[in-house]
UniProtKB/TrEMBL annotation:
One of its GO terms (biological process) is asparagine metabolic process. This is L-asparaginase. Residues 14-204 form the L-asparaginase N-terminal domain. Keywords: Hydrolase. Residues 226-336 form the Asparaginase/glutaminase C-terminal domain. PANTHER family: 60 KDA LYSOPHOSPHOLIPASE (PTHR11707:SF28), L-ASPARAGINASE (PTHR11707). Gene3D superfamilies: 3.40.50.40, L-asparaginase, N-terminal domain. NCBIfam families: asnASE_II. One of its GO terms (molecular function) is asparaginase activity. Belongs to the asparaginase 1 family.
Amino acid sequence: MTRDTAAAARQKARIVLIGTGGTIAGRGASPVNTSAYDCSVLSIDDILADLPVADSLADITTEQLFQVGSENFGNVQLLQLGKRIASLLERDDIDGIVVTHGTDTIDETAYFLHLTLKSPKPVVVVGAMRPPSALSSDGPLNLYNAIVVAASRLAHGKGTLVVSNDEIHTARDVVKTNTFKQDAFKSPYGPLGFVVEGKPVFYRLPARPHTVDSEWSINEIEALSHVGVVYAHGGMNDAIVRAILDSGVKAVIYAATGNGNVAVSIVASLVEARKRGIHVVRGSRTGGGVVIRNAAQPDDLYDWLVTDDQPAHKARILMMLALTREHCTRKLQDVFWRY
Ligand code: DAS
């Protein structure tokens, strides 16, 4: 039997469910504690045991990789998770991966996986805005939907996906936009599709390269550079910029006001940063739109970069990866245009 015929003959996909903590693993004192609760206390086996219908969707094995709120995720966790998923995806007896994850930085982790995993098999990252103990928790249905997507051939080749609130988002675009509501996850260009009555439906595709077409492979990355983010505000002085420049960063993403405007009080410190070998990436704190190169600031003159449409926290992930291969400003700028 060929591999394809064997897969067709098999009734259920084989999915590995990796637990890392977060609200989806949380527990509140009472059902009305929808937003105040202990995070990362339920094991991945506890979470799955609460969803007996999952057995009908896939043959599921579990792994508890971490048990932490995602605000605690750093580069060590990104690399460890990525390498573990990569080694699982290489196996012929695994069809897809679901990662349960805190929602706070789920968009960063998913984007990192999207750019570094070298497999067309589905990888779905899922969280919850309410713990399983809360009234109308979104955890069980989000997890159910995530398994549905990971088990589907339709999800092949679409990169890392984030499933939430019945929506399927590409990791490149999705951001957390709300502190407590269940529809917290938005993509500026809309979701790729939905999960409707237990079936994934896709309406569009990621336009930019990912996974097998990206230039990074998790197996070739042993460390990531420190990239900092500075959030601009009115009445700003350069103290915070100077502090971050002295912290060992290789690049700073400047989440500027509007279309990448940099206050006069800040420009000199960022010009100095570049002279010290630290890359400066002009972004925007607005949460939407593109930052135009050489418009609000003379990027060519200062040897700065712009983020294209990426929010600062996602630009940070992209810049960390870019710096594993490139240091030339022109090539780094191309990375932002391309991904
Ligand atoms: N505790 C936060 C986190 O782990 C919130 C969450 O999971 O929703 O990201």
